[in-house]
Design brief:
The structure holds two protein chains of two kinds. Chain A is mainly alpha-helical. Chain A is 72% helix and 2% strand. Chain A contains 26 helices and four strands. In chain A, helix 3 runs antiparallel to helix 8, helix 13 packs across helix 24 and helix 24 packs antiparallel against helix 25. Chain B folds into two domains: 196 residues, 3-Layer(aba) Sandwich (Rossmann fold), CATH 3.40.50; 161 residues, Response regulator (Rossmann fold). Chain B contains 13 helices and 14 strands. The chains are: A mainly alpha, B alpha/beta.
């Protein structure tokens, strides 16, 4: 019995950290609607700053807690700085664009932390006065964890007071409910947002600084926490502090007791839980139904098919690309092969985001399913390449059909996180099913046959297949199917009322996008000769999203441009410097500030303006 | 109305792309005085704590080789090093870049097992010798071994076997295991269980924990292990997870009256960051660099400290020995021809900081060993005591068993 009590308390201590971080995220999201990827970086920064200050002052209880508070405030200031210097300039951009900006911040902060604090893990001092443990029913339990358990409800209480008993809190709640109305009544949203970013980041920093006595501060802390924080926010219901609190408690307990029953479940537990919650409850545990899905793409000017001369541009481009092997070497060809494949991946995601208004955080699942579909056929059935390539979109499409059925029943960030949950489930099955998928050691020897083995031959093959798929996607965008999809995006209610089954169209577009991504995955498998679960992991989903946003979501060419730009930048930076994340992040930030509508959107605007004048 | 241009931009991008990557690098004439190019790939941004000492190690080796007049009668050894971002698909692209643009004659490096396997497969496909430095997976030399791939470090199997030897001497009968939830952790636990049960049929395994790598929930995991009341614990976690596990385990009395047997924990990479909180009395594999006084190690340590002004780490030895092996192989082959270098590497004997080692012709595994001893804290630093050198050659399965595993 005493064991279960202590296990329960351990779960509570885990929950406390999780709550501190996710409460910040949910506040920021609730008010500003920004999907803040950099939140995990603020947590990591809080831990590093906390470590530095605790090493300096942490000998006494006052010094220790002062150091924690100072680290938290410093991180809060940095969050406010990010709002003033970066996000504020993007409020008129499509809503998702700020996500791209925060991703740039993530990359910059990773290298900055490594530059300032070095690469070695830093084990900080323990909290003075709280080093020991107390016996709870004969089981030793660390004192510090007891303090953390108390801190969770304390912070929740303080936040409640702040939001319900102060003028600032009331304004924030008003802005959460209706931003436009609040600003019409004379509340300056910019100042409010700065304050909210300060508060949210300070909470992340506090969570990080409080980890110093518990674990070694390291450079992987940002990624480890940010996804879980999003899970808590969504499970609790976006913008709901109490929801985040309840969700943290549940996840903490699930982790504490889940590993007793099934120790191998650690990889996927939180995502399984999120999937179940979202399937049962559309707005999380305590979230409210919203008037508009929050992260839907801003429609912008309608998409119109090219006419006249411009119609020949894709053909010209294709001819140009097809001629490249005449001048380029092997390496240039494999990079271009990758660009073409990634362009298809990005374009397939754009079908969802740009046309359907459905933002997926788990698109890598279908890319990976395609790659595995092809590789498994080669490995287990010794299938020839054409057959394996045909299987790729099929398996991915089936996977997307199954996951999509659940996902399209949710909207906005709930949709995004449900796609992420499915992607993580697929990833963990692939990762752990050693007998069938080879587990994390992957499948080797997936090389093309002799006739396609040459770099040029495989490049042409990729160009033909991916180019064909891109044309089909473009065709879909201008077919009645595409118009219907766009109608559903712009006004689901009106579309329904004229007799369109919006959900079914979204579902089909999800399957179509999934199978296109699957074809890309199949081509990628043969280009690399091996497949690994990393192909369906979160970073690939994020990369795909970044490519789409970088190019701009308002044009069909956007994702293609974005994929080329992102991939070439990354490969070039990687081969030149170890600080490539810093370079890539800085370029993204400059691009975001210079082209708030994406690169392709910018070019189009320029063209339009030129023609009008 | 605007209706045409959204397809112009990709044209420009593609053109830029073609120009940017198509520029062929200057072709290297294969003249006798030309340097010998070796391509090196590792996770410099993913795992800098391990890979930066490793890089310094190979830099030292390359400098020594070139200062001694280079190879094959005066050709310098030149290394082109790249980051793989910790991703196998990036590593394969980088390998292609090194092969096509830099015209490398050999590949070396990699840390993660899956990255190592991807590069090994690439090497076999392109008939390029590849000396895998760090990856520990058994598959790279056994079930997925190939003619062109060699591996320096003692594999998961070898390190587990070294610890089993010590574990079998303990009175402990009830064992619990904790390992990261991926192939490395799983095969370490699997070998440990199998080999220990063979030596000690009376032991039983009463609990297992599989935390996600980098995301160990220390409190619940420690508590769950303690609840099974094991006599001893086999630990495979490392890095930040290990520090968390040790702290929480001490706080909750998990290690009181229990022996812990732990993989890699004695390596300075993992022991140093824990400072005075390093665990006491754990039986570990590692590298007590400050205490090894064999002539070959002393020479290495002195040269390393002089060059980099810090003590070597396990990674430094791996980097150093990898490139010494490459130099020795090229010299033995008398040419940079891939097939000749592969033949030279098979059965290559050389002297490493750990003593003489051999790249076995049978499975291309080097017989480099590890140091087995106990941890303790001295002057506020974790160190190893009572250690001995376990020669890798003594901890490998029978030739016949290996032959059965390797594809022909």
């Amino acid at each position: 019995m005493s064991f279960y009590l202590v296990q329960f308390l351990s779960g509570l201590a885990t929950a406390a950290t999780l709550f501190l971080v996710s409460s910040g995220l949910t506040i920021v999201f609730g008010v500003t609607r920004i999907v803040n990827f950099a939140h995990g970086s603020f947590y990591m920064l809080g831990a590093y700053l906390g470590w530095t200050l605790v090493e300096r002052w942490g000998g006494t209880p006052l010094g220790f807690w002062g150091a924690v508070a100072a680290a938290s405030l410093a991180v809060g200031l940095l969050g406010a700085l990010m709002e003033v210097g970066l996000l504020r300039r993007l409020y008129r951009s499509p809503e998702l664009f700020q996500l791209l900006a925060t991703f740039g911040v993530v990359l910059v902060m990773q290298d900055a932390a490594s530059w300032i604090w070095g690469s070695e893990d830093l084990l900080g001092r323990r909290a003075p006065g709280l080093r020991g443990s107390v016996d709870i029913l004969d089981q030793p339990f660390p004192l510090y964890d007891l303090v953390l358990i108390g801190l969770g409800p304390l912070v929740l209480g303080l936040l409640w007071l702040l939001f319900n008993r102060t003028r600032w809190g009331t304004l924030v709640r008003a802005a959460t409910q209706d931003r436009d109305m609040a600003s019409a009544l004379g509340v300056d949203p910019a100042r409010l947002f700065t304050g909210v970013l300060f508060l949210g980041s300070a909470l992340a920093g506090l969570g990080g600084a409080l980890q110093v006595p518990r674990e070694a501060v390291n450079l992987h802390m940002d990624m480890a926490i940010v996804v879980e924080a999003f899970v808590v926010v969504v499970v609790g219901g976006m913008g709901s502090l109490t929801g985040a609190f309840v969700a943290s408690l549940l996840i903490g307990q699930l982790q504490a007791f889940g590993i007793l029953v099934f120790p191998q479940i650690t990889l996927v537990l939180v995502f399984l839980f999120m999937a179940v919650v979202l399937v049962i409850r559309p707005y999380g545990l305590l979230g409210r139904a919203e008037d508009a899905p929050p992260t839907a793409a801003s429609p912008g000017p309608p998409l119109i098919a090219a006419a006249g001369m411009a119609r020949w541009v894709p053909a010209l481009l294709l001819a140009l690309l097809a001629a490249v092997p005449l001048v380029a070497g092997d390496y240039a060809l494999i990079v271009l092969t990758e660009v073409v494949i990634l362009a298809l991946l990005a374009a397939s995601l754009h079908l969802l985001i740009g046309l359907g208004g459905l933002v997926s955080f788990g698109h890598a699942a279908y890319f990976g399913l395609g790659a595995y579909g092809a590789a498994l056929l080669v490995k287990h059935l010794a299938a020839p390449m054409p057959l394996a390539l045909a299987a790729a979109p099929l398996l991915a499409g089936l996977g997307a059909l199954a996951a999509g059925w659940f996902c399209v029943r949710r909207s906005g960030l709930y949709f995004a996180m449900l796609t992420l949950a499915f992607a993580q489930i697929v990833w963990s099955v692939t990762f752990q099913w050693y007998g069938f998928t080879g587990g994390d050691n992957g499948i080797l020897g997936v090389w093309p046959p002799d006739w396609a083995a040459g770099k040029a031959a495989y490049y042409w093959l990729t160009l033909a297949l991916a180019g064909g798929a891109l044309l089909l996607l473009r065709r879909a965008a201008f077919a009645p199917f595409g118009y219907t999809l766009r109608a559903g995006r712009d006004s689901a209610l009106r579309a329904e009322s004229v007799g369109i089954n919006v959900r079914r169209h979204q579902w089909l577009s999800f399957a179509l996008a999934g199978s296109a991504a699957g074809l890309a995955g199949g081509l990628y498998a043969f280009a690399k000769g091996s497949v690994f679960p990393t192909l369906m992991a979160v970073p690939v989903s994020v990369d795909a999203l970044v490519m789409v946003l970088m190019g701009g979501i308002q044009t069909l060419s956007g994702p293609v441009v974005g994929a080329a730009l992102f991939h070439l930048l990354e490969t070039e930076a990687m081969s030149r410097t170890d600080w490539w994340r810093l370079v890539l992040g800085a370029v993204i930030l400059v691009l975001v500030l210079a082209f708030p509508k994406g690169v392709a959107g910018f070019v189009r605007d320029l063209w339009t303006r030129g023609r009008e004048s | 109305m605007n209706r045409r241009h959204f397809l112009l931009a990709p044209g420009a991008a593609a053109l830029a792309a073609a120009l940017c990557v198509a520029a062929p690098s200057a072709s290297h004439a294969q003249a006798e005085s030309q340097p010998i190019h070796v391509g090196e790939i590792n996770s410099y941004t993913g795992l800098p704590a391990f890979t930066i000492p490793y890089r310094q190690g190979w830099q030292l080796a390359v400098e020594e080789v070139n200062a001694a007049g280079g190879l094959l009668g005066g050709r310098k050894l030149e290394v082109v090093s790249r980051d793989d971002a910790g991703k196998p698909d990036d590593a394969v692209r980088v390998a292609q870049e090194l092969l096509s643009n830099e015209k490398v004659e050999l590949l070396a490096g990699t840390y993660f097992s899956h990255v190592g396997l991807a590069v090994a497969d690439f090497a076999a496909r392109n008939k390029l010798p590849f000396v895998a430095a760090e990856p520990l997976t058994d598959a790279i030399t056994w079930t997925k071994g190939n003619r062109y791939t060699f591996r320096l470090r003692p594999s998961t199997y070898m390190q587990a076997a070294m610890l089993v030897e010590e574990a079998a001497k303990l009175p402990a009968k009830r064992w619990a295991t904790v390992a990261p939830n991926y192939e490395y952790g799983q095969s370490a636990v699997q070998w440990f269980r199998q080999l220990l049960s063979e030596k000690r049929p009376d032991v039983e395994f009463v609990a297992e924990q599989w935390p996600a790598q980098g995301k160990l929930e220390a409190g619940p995991t420690v508590q769950a292990l303690a609840a099974a009341k094991p006599d001893a614990i086999f630990n495979v976690t490392f890095g930040a997870d290990l520090a968390k596990f040790v702290r929480e385990g001490e706080g909750r009395g998990l290690f009181r009256n229990r022996t812990v047997v732990s993989l890699l924990t004695g390596e300075p990479e993992y022991l140093d960051p824990m400072k005075d909180e390093a665990p006491e009395g754990w039986i570990v594999t590692g590298y007590p660099q400050e205490q090894i006084d064999t002539p070959e190690h002393k020479a290495f340590r002195e040269a390393y400290v002089k060059r980099f002004n810090e003590p070597p780490r396990q990674g430094s030895v791996v980097g150093y020995a990898t490139f010494k092996a490459i130099a020795a192989a090229v010299e033995k082959a008398g040419s940079t021809d891939a097939e000749k270098v592969v033949d030279a590497l098979s059965g290559l004997d050389l002297s490493s900081p750990f003593g003489p080692i051999t790249f076995r012709a049978l499975d291309h595994q080097a017989t480099m060993g590890a140091y087995v001893g106990k941890t303790t804290v001295k002057n506020g630093q974790g160190v190893m005591t009572g250690w001995r050198y376990a020669d890798g050659a003594d901890y490998l399965p029978s030739d016949e068993a290996v032959r059965k595993m390797r594809p022909e």
